[in-house]
Amino acid sequence: MIQLRPIIFVVGLMLCTIAAAMVLPAVVDVADRHDDWKIFFGAAVLTFFVGGLMVLVAYDDEPVQLGIREGFLLTTVAWLALTAAAAVPFKLLGLSYADSFFEAMSGITTTGATVLVGLDKLPRGVLFWRALLQGLGGLGIIVMAILMLPFLRVGGMQLFQTENSDKSEKIMPRAFELTLSIAGVYVALMFACSVVYVVLGMTFFDAICHALTTVSTAGFSTHDESFGFFRSPSLEWACVFFMILGALPFVVFIKAIHGDRMAIWRDSQVQGFLSFVVVVSFTLAAWLILTREIAAGEAVRVAIFSVVSIVTTTGFAVEDYTAWGTFSIGLFFLLKFVGGCSGSTTGGIKIYRLQVAGMLARSHFLHLISPNRVVTLMYNKRRLPDDVPFSVVAFLAIYLATVGIFTVLLASLDLDLVTSLTASAQAVGNVGPGLGHLVGPTGNYSTLPNGAKWILSFAMLLGRLELFTVLVLFRIEFWRS
């Protein structure tokens, strides 16, 4: 039987924490002498009251055992509750609840799709709240949850495995120590990113907001032109660097800190990710030079920025890549499925699954040529567990089927096929921009019907939770028991 008390208790603590976070944009508005501070402060009080009430109702001195089912349910309920709370300031600012929930879900799942227009004229408190949501959503929410689980005197690794379904290598003996290390790396990267941005010419406010959304590979900007607003090659290269760092598995950074300096370069996933980015970027750059008569230096820069932005599911834009021709459109559609490394802040299918799928295809081909040949699947110089190939194939099948289902749902609202398909792909992959005039790099989701916004909000949630993988890896235990 599922124990609801610990779930209510932890969700209550998380609501109290996000209520405290609402005070920060209120402080920004106070500094700007803008009346919106009252909205953020009121939302903080309301959220803290609800969260505090949940904590008081569910508190118990008796220790509990948190199992897979509780971890599964806690992860889902936490994301829904936090999104509902994060949407309150947007609602009080005048957005419809559909728009408010969509914006909050896009922020906290680090998707980066937005219904807001005229960002350059919005109060800074709103802009900072959007960036802060993405900073929390990158790794902050899971870190927050695992840090709170010791209050129940149970470990937090169940939740870590539920959200990061690849079961990343546990290199430390305790989940709490792993959490602190991940949080430390995450905050250090954000601090370094903001410093670099300031040095290269951003204002302090823009640097903080864009650091929060760069390292979290999320993509919200403070300007309608996204990253292209700055017109600075040096800032674009810096952004590329930190997007790549955010897309690498955080566990390799922890290994490097603890003395294994070559851990990053030995990791098969990192090698595959970097190789893929380089090959695709220079292929696109060559195509731009040959067909669009763009100078070589500029072609390389915009190609690398655009490819890295989409592959890492960040979604920043410096150019409208849909204006580069049909080759570019087809390429970027496929890139929306790729994703970064597992154990990072990115969405998408993830590089390691694609690598395992390639190994399975090669193994099957070799078996067809030589039926008696035994092929051992190795990854990172270790034999793959027997259940991994099945899990990867099942994930790919369910992932693509899910994109297809959401495409049909959106098409039922009279949206065209390009909008329906690419909006579904970007939402499940937590990418941000789709293709077409409605949801492309120059489009805006505010023009979609409310039904489409609710559908895409649910798709973003599924993508962030990697719900399909959870069902596969745990053999659908939640529903069978």
Main features:
single chain; 481 residues; mainly alpha; two-stranded antiparallel sheet; 2 strands; globular
Sheet-strand content, in percent, reads under 5%
Unreliable stretches (pLDDT < 50, length at least 5) are: 151-168, 468-481
The main β sheet shows up as: 2 strands, antiparallel
Describe the strand arrangement of the main beta sheet, using strand numbers.
1-2
Radius of gyration: 22 Å
Q: Write down the overall mean pLDDT.
A: 84
* Count of alpha and pi helical runs: 20
Q: How many strands in all?
A: 2
Q: Give me the secondary-structure category.
A: mainly alpha
**Apparent shape:** globular
Helix content: 55-70%
What is the end-to-end distance?
Answer: 8 Å
SSE succession: HHHHHHHHHHHHHHHEEHHHHH
Describe the overall structure.
The protein is mainly α and 481 residues long. Helices cover 66% and strands 1% of the residues. The protein is built from 20 helices and two strands. It has a two-stranded antiparallel ribbon. Strand 1 (378-379) and strand 2 form a beta hairpin. The longest helix is centred in the first third of the chain and has 28 residues, at 4-31. It is globular. Mean pLDDT is 84; it is low at 151-168 and 468-481.
In short:
The chain has helices at 4-31, 37-58, 68-92, 97-108, 124-148, 157-163, 175-199, 204-215, 233-247, 250-257, 263-266, 268-292, 296-311, 326-335, 351-369, 387-411, 417-429, 450-465, 467-473, 477-480; strands spanning 378-379, 382-383.
